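Chapter summary example.
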Amino acid sequence: MWETRSVQITVRLPHDIAEQAEEVGRTDPEFLSRVMLYGLTRRSIYRHLRGRTGEQNPAEIGKELPT
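The structure predicted for these 67 residues follows.
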């Protein structure tokens, strides 16, 4: 599909979620990798779309909603 490379990511999670993530990393690292890819892809798309919205509607940035 595309060229990939490994990276080390350190995140701070609540203890129970961290334990689950460590267990998944030991038992099914491919699944954990796909979950991370999904999350990072969503974040990238969100940032891209949010940036485009700001470019198309500069008057809307910082505009307050009517009360």
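To summarize the output: The helical segments are 15-27, 29-56.
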